[in-house]
Specification:
Number of strands: 2
Distance between the termini: 48 Å
Strand content: 5-15%
Radius of gyration: 14 Å
Strand order of the largest sheet: 1-2
Shape: globular
Number of helices: 3
Amino acid sequence: MTQESLTYTAIMEHVMDGMPGGVLVYRDDEKEEILYTNSWLIHMFGCHDMDDFMAVTGGSSQRRERKRR
């Protein structure tokens, strides 16, 4: 990445973290891989950080059916 794109990315992350609500950015393909989420959404899911959030979601925005007992 160039210095300019790193600066742009840092600015966008700062803006998205300041938004009053959850932000999720994912790749629009069959896997729907999560690329970014802001701290609001991480905390709404009861997670401590991005690694925790990725573990909870499986790294994808695809809806998964929960097994019923």
